[in-house]
Amino acid sequence: MKIGQLACRASLNASAIRYYEKRGLLAPPQRLGGQRRYPSDALDRVLLIRFATDMGFTHAEIKLFLSGLRDNTPVGPRWKKLAAHKLAEVERNIARSLKLKTLLQGLLRCRCASLKQCVCALGLSENLRSLALRAK
């Protein structure tokens, strides 16, 4: 199929397909008369790339997942490895977001009269000192 057909079926612009090729996420297709001609499985790959990108996977992670993948290759083991790594990252982001939420809720009640008072109230001076001691 031509690039325009692939792009249309994946609800993308042709430039996105070319970008995926450039990044190594999609194998360069055959060319006939200077036009790209994609195999039938290219749509599945493009849809997976789009889905994985929307879910927060990096292009490097997607490329690793797709490398050497054939139509008859079981994808379960690949998903498990990628999902385990991504799940740990998501858990770290959730913990960070919850801390940020608590901080922001506290900042909504801020009544500090000066920056120095605010730094002390947030415990930043102690945090910086402890980081400096750990670095030694």
From the structure above, extract its key features:
2 strands; 4% strand; mainly alpha; 136 residues; elongated; Multidrug-efflux Transporter Regulator, Chain: A, Domain 2; single chain; two-stranded antiparallel ribbon; 7 helices
Task: Report what the structure shows.
This protein is mainly alpha-helical and 136 residues long. The protein has a domain at 1-67: Orthogonal Bundle (Multidrug-efflux Transporter Regulator, Chain: A, Domain 2). Helix content is 65%, strand content 4%. The protein has 7 helices and 2 strands, in the order H-H-E-E-H-H-H-H-H. It has helices spanning 3-9, 14-22, 42-54, 59-66, 76-107, 115-121, 124-135, and strands at 30-32, 35-37. A two-stranded antiparallel ribbon has the order 1-2. Strand 1 and strand 2 (35-37) form a beta hairpin. The mean pLDDT is 86.
Query: Care to count the β-strands?
Result: 2
Helix content: 55-70%
Q: For the largest beta sheet, what order do the strands appear in spatially?
A: 1-2
From the spread of the alpha carbons, the general shape counts as elongated
Strand content range: under 5%
Radius of gyration equals 24 Å
- The class by helix and strand makeup works out as mainly alpha
Distance from N terminus to C terminus (CA atoms, Å) equals 61 Å
**Helical segment tally?**
7
Low-confidence stretches: none
Averaged pLDDT: 86
CATH domain class name of one domain: Mainly Alpha
Give the CATH architecture of one domain.
Orthogonal Bundle
Q: Main sheet, how many strands, which sense, barrel?
A: 2 strands, antiparallel
In N-to-C order, the SSE pattern is: HHEEHHHHH
Under CATH, the topology of one domain is which?
Answer: Multidrug-efflux Transporter Regulator, Chain: A, Domain 2
